[in-house]
Amino acid sequence: MTEMTPELIAEHGLTPEEYDRIVEALGGRAPNLTELGVFSVMWSEHCSYKSSRVWLKELHTTGAQVIQGPGENAGIIDIGDNQAVVFKMESHNHPSFIEPYQGAATGVGGIMRDVFTMGARPIANLNALRFGEPDHEKTRHLVSGVVEGIGGYGNCMGVPTVGGEVNFDASYNGNILVNAMCVGLAEADNIFYAAAGGVGNPVIYVGSRTGRDGIHGATMASAEFDDDSDEKRPTVQVGDPFAEKLLLEACLELMAGDAIIAIQDMGAAGLTSSSVEMADKGGVGFALDLDKVPQREANMTPYEMLLSESQERMLMVLKPGREDEARAIFEKWELNFAVVGVTTDTGRLVVSHQGEIVADMPLHALAHDAPIYERPWVPTPPPAALGAADVPAPDDIAGTLAQLVAAPDMASKRWVWEQYDHMVMGDTVQRPGGDAAVVRVHGTGKGLAMSVDVTPRYCKADPVMGGRQAIAECYRNITATGGQPLATTDCMNFGSPERPEIMGQFAGAVEGMAEACRVLDFPIVSGNVSFYNETKGEPILPTPAIGGVGLIPDIRHMMTAALKDEGDVLILIGEEHGHLGQSLYLREILGRADGAPPPVDLAAEKLNGGFVRALIWEGKINAAHDLSDGGLYVAAAEMAMAGNIGADLKTGEDDLPLHAALFGEDQARYLITAPSGGALDILVAAKKAGVPARLAGTVGGGELTVNGGLPISVQSLRNKHEHWLPDYMAG
Amino acid sequence: MKASVIVFPGSNCDRDIQVALRHSMGEEPQMVWHGDAEVPRSDLIVLPGGFSYGDYLRSGAIAANSPIMRDVVAKAGQGVPVLGICNGFQVLIESGLLPGALLRNAGMHFLCRDVGLRVENTGTVFTGHYEKGQIVTIPIAHHDGNYFADDATLERLEGEGRVAFRYCDSEGAAGEDANPNGSLNNIAGILNDGGSVLGMMPHPERLADPFLGGTDGKPMFDGLVEALS
To answer: What three-state secondary structure class fits A355?
Structure first.
C-alpha cells in the first residue's frame, strides 16, 4: 500500500489538519491512495465551497417564484402553466486558459448536463467571457479558441447561444474567465433530483466511457496558476457534443416515464462526486463495482476511474425491475448502459475492483464534514469620491463617443455571436446584441428574457456597491425588453481566498448582491464560486457575474432598444448626477480607474424599472434601453446604431458639465422613446408615480446630435462599432 | 400532403422543420427514425439540419449510410420530392442525390446570420410561391457550406437552370461581398436534374414566423403544400 507521506498529502491539495480529519473520519486508520484521492476532490474548494460557504448563506435565495434554490444541480423557478425554468451558470476558467477550445466546450457541456439532469430541455445558452488586454500576446488565441469551443459544443447540441458579454482587462491576462449559463424548460410536476432512495435499487451508469482525462480537474480549479500551468493540460477534459446530444435525448425519453428515482450528472470529480451527492442526499449508502464501469482504456486503476472527469456521463438510481426498459432507450441512442452498483443502508461508499474492496468511506464525512473555513478578511477601504470638476472634459465630445463605441468592451460582439447558432429551436425572438436575449416558451406566447451582467471595475473599487450594481443592471436589462425579472444565478470569480483582502471583496460583493436581490425580489437560485483566479500572485478584478431570467407574459409586447420612427420623442427615466467615478470615460479616455462607482439606489431601481415595464406592457413606448457603461450618450448611440436612424439628444436643465451629463454612469436609468403624441402622458404618469423623467430629444435623420450641435453620422459610428473586433481578430 | 422528416442521431433542426411544416400543412408531418428500413408513404421527404453523427468523418457522410437512406434514394428515384436543408443538403450530396461538395466556409468559422438570396428557378414544387429574381432573407447557420463542383458540373447546373438560390445583396447582386462562405457562383441551393430534389444551406424554416423576424421562408412550405396536395 502507498505510504501517506506529507508530500503526497500536499500534492492532493490537503493540509496536514485536513489529513488528520480524514484519518478521524475513517475511524483512526490511514486512507489508502484511492481514498485519499476521493477525499481530496470532495474536500477541494471547487466541490466543498469550504471558504465561501459561511458567506453564501447570507444570499437571498427565496421567493414565491422559487421551486428550487441553491444546492441542487440547478435552480428552478415557476413561470405558471405547469412550466418551470431550470438554470445555472458555472465557471470553466482554468481549463479554458490551458486549452481554450476544449476548456470552453466542456464548460458548456457541463452546464447543459446540470440542467437536463433535472428533466429540463435546454432552450438557451449564455456566457460571460473575460480576457486579458487586447495587446497581450495570448489574448487573440484565447478569444479565438474559447469562442470556437463554445460554438462547437452548443451548435452541435442544437441549443441556441443567445447572449452574454465579452470584456477585456489586463487583470485577466494570465487567468481568463469562461462562465457558461444554461437555461432549460421543464414541466413543473416532472422535475428530477439527485437524492437516491431505497435499499437494493440499481445504480446505473449511462453515456460515454470512462477514460483518463480530467483527473484532478477539481483540484486544479482550486489552486493558483504559475509558470508550470501548461503542464496541467492533461487535466483538461475533452468534449464530445454528439454524445451529449444523444445523452440528452435518451435521458428526456426515459424521464417521460417513471422509472427514475434519482439522477445526477458526472461533472467535477466524476463518478466520485455524483455517487457521494446522490447517496448522501438520499441518506443511503452505495456499493459500486468498478469492473462494471464502461472503460475507454485498459488497466485503469480505481483511483483513475473514481477521479476521471470524462464527459457526457450520468449516474441514475432506477426503480427495481425497470432496468430493461431503460436499457432499451439508451441502446436505441447507441449509448453505454451499465448497472454499476446498488443502494445500501450502510451510509458508506464502498467500492470494489477485481474482487477486492478498494475504498470504504462514510458518506457523511465526504459530503458534510468537509472543513469549513472562516477565512480572515478585511473590508475594501472606501474609495475617495471623484467629482465631475476633477475629471477633465474632452476637446472633441462627438469624437470621444466614436472612441467609446469602438472600445474593446463596447464594440459590437457580432464576430463572436455569429459563430454561435443563436436561432436553432425556432424560438429566438430577440437575438444577441440587445439588452437581453428573449426566447419564446415553445408553443406559447410567453417569452424568457435573459441577461448576464457585472461591472468588475465597480466591484474592485467598492465590492458592496459593485455587487448591488451587478444585480441592478441585470434587472434593468431584463426590464428593458419587457421582462419581469424573476431570479438569478451567480458565478463568483475571485482571487485566492487565503488573502484577507480577497475574502473582503467576496464578503462585500455577497453583501451588496444580497441587498439588491432582496429589494428587487430577484433571488439567487443557483451558482458557483471560483476562487484562486490569480497568476503569480496577481488576482483578477473581482467578478461576480450575474445571470438573470425574467418572464415576458406576452411576447407581442416585447421591447427592443432600436430607435424606430422619425419624430419619436426620447425620454430619460431616472435621476442625473453626472457620476464619473470609475466610469468608462475615465478608464478608456483618461486611462484612470479612480473614484467611487456610482451609488445604486435600490428603491429607485425598483420604482423606475416597474414604471418602464408597465409602459412596455401597455404598449405606450416603442424603444427602451438600459443606461450603463458610457452613460446617456453611449446609450443613445447604441439605440441609433441598432435602428440605423439618428436623433437629437437634449441634456437636462441642471448645470452639470456637458461631459458629465453625457458620460456619467448614474444608475436606475433608462432611455425610452414614444410617439410624439404620447410623450406628455408618460411625463404626467411619471410625475404621479414619483419617477424622475424628462424629455431627452427627438428621433430622426442620419446623425446623432446633442442639443442641435456636435453632429456625428450614425453610419460612421456603426462602422467603428462593428469593425473593432473583426479587425482585431484579423490582426 | 403527407410529409416525412428523417431524424438522424444528431439532427437538431428536426423540430424546427416539423413546426414550419405543421403551420403550412395544418397537420403533423411524420417523424421517421434513421434506423427504419422504409419511409412511410410520403409526398415529401425532408432531411433536416443539425450535426448528424456529430459531423464526424465528414458532414453528412455517416448519415448517408444510414439504413433509411437506401429508401430515400429509391423514393427520390421514383420522383418523390426530397428537400435537404443545411446538414440535409450535406447528406444529399454524400448520398449522391446531388452533385458537388460542401467544403469548410472560406472564413473558416461557423456562421449564423441572415443572408440575402435570389430565387433563380421558380419552376419547382419548392419554389412555386416565389417570383423569379425575388430577393428573400433567409438565415444560414453552418461551418461547411462552401459549395464546390468541377467546371463541367458547374456548367451543367447553370445551363440546366438547376441553381435554385444564389447568395445576393439587398439589390440582388450576387457578388463576392454577398457570399458568406465562398461558394462557387454564390450557389446557396441546387436541384437534381429532374428538379425534384433540392438541397440548400440556408434555413427557410427559421424565418417562417413573424415573431422570429421575418416570413420569407414560409412561401416554400405553402408552395409545397399547394403543389403536393
So the answer is: coil
Query: Between chains, do B113 and A418 touch, taking CB under 8 Å as contact?
Result: yes
Q: What is the pLDDT of residue A237?
A: 82
The pTM of the full predicted model, rounded to 2 decimals, is 0.97
Q: Which amino acid is at A184?
A: G
Of these residues, A12, A46, A94, A625, which one is catalytic? A46
**Residue A701 CB neighbours (<10 A):** 16
**Bridge partners, B199 (sequence order):** B84, B190
| Residue of higher predicted confidence among A536 and B2 | B2
Catalytic residue (one of A60, A92, A422, A625): A92
The H or E element spanning position A182 is: strand A177-187
Contact residues, chain A, for B9 at CB < 8 Å: 242, 245-246, 333-334
| A177 pLDDT above the threshold of 80 | yes
Contact B46, B17 (CB under 8 A): yes
Q: Quick check: A428 contacting B, CB < 8 Å?
A: yes
Per-residue pLDDT at B208: 97
Distance from CA of A673 to the nearest CA of B (A): 21
Q: Does A518 touch chain B (CB under 8 A)?
A: no
Whether residue B131 lies in the annotated active site: no
pLDDT digits (tens, 9 = 90+) for A553-592: 999 999 999 999 999 999 999 999 999 999 999 999 999 9
Full 3-state SS string of A238-261:
CCCHHHHHHHHHHHHHHHCCCCEE
The amino acid occupying position A261 is I
**In the structure, what pLDDT confidence band is assigned to residue A207 with cuts at 50, 70 and 90?**
very high
- Strand B163-168 relative to strand B111-119, pairing: antiparallel
Instruction: Return the residue matching grid coordinates 419617477.
Output: A691
Name residue A121's beta-bridge partners.
Answer: A185
B109 catalytic residue (yes or no): no
C-alpha cell at B185: 457562383
N- to C-terminal Cα distance for chain B? 4
Has residue A19 got a pLDDT over 80?
yes
CB atoms within 10 A of CB B187: 28
- Which of B13, B34, B86, B120 is catalytic? The answer is B86
Per-domain residue ranges of chain B:
3-228
**Are B212 and A423 an interchain contact pair (Cβ–Cβ within 8 Å)?**
yes
Q: What percent of chain B has pLDDT over 90?
A: 100
Per CATH, the number for B3-228 is 3.40.50.880
Quote the cell numbers at residue A35: 481514498
- Chain B interface includes A444 (CB < 8 A): no
Angle between helices A714-730 and A139-157 (to 10 degrees): 100
Q: Which residue type occupies B221?
A: F
Interval A18-31 mean pLDDT: 96
Q: Is the pLDDT of residue A370 over 90?
A: no
A543-552 vs A447-453, strand pairing mode: antiparallel
pLDDT band at A212 (very low <50, low <70, confident <90, very high): confident
| Whether residue A12 lies in the annotated active site | no
Q: What is the pLDDT of residues A122-154, one digit of tens each?
A: 999 999 999 999 999 999 999 999 999 999 999
**Vertex A462 angle, CA A458 and A466, to 5°:** 50
A429–B contact, CB cutoff 8 A: yes
- Strands A83-91 and A75-78 turn out to be antiparallel
Element (H, E) at A207: strand A202-207
Residue of A nearest to B206 (CA): A426
Single out the residue of B20, B75, B82 nearest to residue B45, CA to CA: B82
Q: Are A153 and A239 in contact (CB under 8 A)?
A: yes
Instruction: Summarize the confidence of residues A624-651 as an average pLDDT.
Output: 98
CA distance A183 to A199: 34
Whether residue A223 is predicted with pLDDT greater than 70 in this model: the reply is no
- Using alpha carbons, list the distances in angstroms from residue A380 to A383, A503, A507, A580, A586: 8, 10, 10, 20, 21
> Hey, of A150, A244, A329, A421, which one would you mutate to test binding to chain B, going by the most B CBs within 10 A of its CB?
A421
